[in-house]
Amino acid sequence: MEIRIRPYEPGDRDAVVDLALRAWEPAHTALARTLGPSLHRRVHGDWRRSHARDVGEDLDSAEAAAWVAVTDRVAGFVTVRLDRAGGTGLVHLLGVHPDQQGRGTGTALTEFAVERIREEGMAVAVIRTGGDDAHAPARAVYERAGFVAAPVVHYYRSL
């Protein structure tokens, strides 16, 4: 399967938002099991709505650059934000359609984003993901790409 990465175009929006929600659903299902449904709702509200908004904001933002991976359709996407003063580039959002996962799309998008960050003269590339089992495949991709994990733990308590 050939993976082509090209700049995001406004006509890609629906496909990108849809695949992002499909890609991130397992993580929210796992997080709801960890936190419990009530606390998960309190912390994340309607996560589909907020994530759709967040993806749309990155796609529309002058602060972020966006690309899509295309196979026979839009199979994934990545957005990058640069902190020129700090010399860092953040791989802000990355998603791969569930039926395209495990086929190299995430790896291709990660490598592509890192190369764009390097071309912009940044000294450090940053990417963030969850530490739960649902995010294990993403962590494996990032570690293979040379990223080093710095564990962070978030604690939540219902009041």
Automatic annotation (TrEMBL):
<dbReference type="InterPro" id="IPR000182">
    <property type="entry name" value="GNAT_dom"/>
</dbReference>
<protein>
    <submittedName>
        <fullName>GNAT family N-acetyltransferase</fullName>
    </submittedName>
</protein>
<keyword id="KW-0012">Acyltransferase</keyword>
<keyword id="KW-0808">Transferase</keyword>
<dbReference type="GO" id="GO:0016747">
    <property type="term" value="F:acyltransferase activity, transferring groups other than amino-acyl groups"/>
</dbReference>
<dbReference type="InterPro" id="IPR016181">
    <property type="entry name" value="Acyl_CoA_acyltransferase"/>
</dbReference>
<dbReference type="InterPro" id="IPR050832">
    <property type="entry name" value="Bact_Acetyltransf"/>
</dbReference>
<feature type="domain" description="N-acetyltransferase">
    <location>
        <begin position="3"/>
        <end position="159"/>
    </location>
</feature>
<dbReference type="Pfam" id="PF00583">
    <property type="entry name" value="Acetyltransf_1"/>
</dbReference>
